Structures are given as structure tokens and as C-alpha cells.
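[agent] plan:
  1. take the single chain provided in the ticket
  2. run structure prediction with default settings
  3. attach C-alpha cells to the ticket
  4. add a short note for the reviewer (M.T.)
[agent] executing step 1
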Amino acid sequence: MIHFHIITLFPDSIEPYLASSIIGRAQKEKKIKVSFYNPKDFTTDAYGRVDRRPYGGGPGMVLEPDAILRAAQKAVGKKRGIDTIFFSTDGEQFNQVMAQNLSKKKDVAFICGHYEGVDERVRKILKAKKVSVGPYILTGGELPAATMIDAISRFIPGVLGKSESLEISRVASPEVYTRPEILAWKGKKYRVPKVLLTGHHEKIEEWKKSRLGKT
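[agent] step 2 finished; step 3 output follows
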């Protein structure tokens, strides 16, 4: 079983997603485990504040290191071989290979930044890996964490209903069809490609390959 540790100020923003559908079932079947650690529960500030003004000026607030590190310490403890992910726009691009490699770990921790980010010293102290889920900027690290957990979990045996569901183990087409064979919509008819109705597996696989990269 792989244990995902999420350090976030807003666990409610992604907990419902991770508790539902395939990922939720995987947790119930103890194939994966997800734990949340809110830095506000680890701050020494009398008002529970965890954000401060950035040194050097600039807009917004930065998450202070102390509370994040205490939350991470609670999550990581004395575990060995744990991978800690620090979301950053200049980090390594997340992909299927990274997801597959992380699926072999027992523990993976995610540092979810917010506002203007997390004090850089957190990454250095935890020796965290800088990762980006795409060439864009989000308001926080919660969605990237949920995205990575979803992608990683797919490689864990038993999480998907069938091993063939893994795209890398079969020829996947970006176009999929189901019943009815002919869809009537607003005066027009939309048909399923004839090749998919033939039962000729070789031709169907050729068609799928021809659709790769097309939208």
C-alpha cells in the first residue's frame, strides 16, 4: 500500500474528489492511503497565522517555513525512502514515467503552496523534488497533488478494474464510442465509425493508431 501525505491549508478543496470514485474505492480496499496535515495545526502563532510578507518586497504573502516543516515532520517522521514533492513552476514536468516510478514508493508527500508560495528553505531542508504539472500557474498546490495521486494510483495493482485499462498497455484512441450506433441530435445523425462495428481486431487497432495525435 502506498501512503500519500498532503500538507495543505485547504484539505476540504480536494478531499471529496479523493474520497470518491476509483480513488475512493482504492482507499476503502486499502490499496492506497491519503492523509492530510494542515500547517495551521502546527503553527506557534497565537492567531493561527501561517503567512508572512516576503523579504525583498513584492505582492502577496508567503507561507512561513516553521509550520510547514512541523507538518512535514508529522507526515514524514522517521520514514525512509519517502519522496517529497514541492510544486513549482520551474519544476520537472510531471508525466507518466514519473507517475509509474512514484507508484513503487511506500510514501509520497506533497507540499501544497498557496498565495505567493512556500518559503524556499522548506524545499531545501526536506530535499524535496520540484515538480510542475503543466505550463501554467494555479492558485495552489491542491489540484496538482490530486492530479498526481490520481495518475500514480492507476499504476498500483488492483486500483483499476482491469489491467488493460492502463493506456500504456494497449493502443488507446482519443476517440471512443458506445451505444447507440446512430445518434440523432438536432436534426443530424452521427454514426459510429464503421470499422469499430466489424469485429476485425487488426483493423480496429490500425484505426486506433491512426487516430493518435488527432483531435
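[agent] step 4 note for reviewer: The chain has two domains: 2-163, 171-211.
[agent] ticket updated
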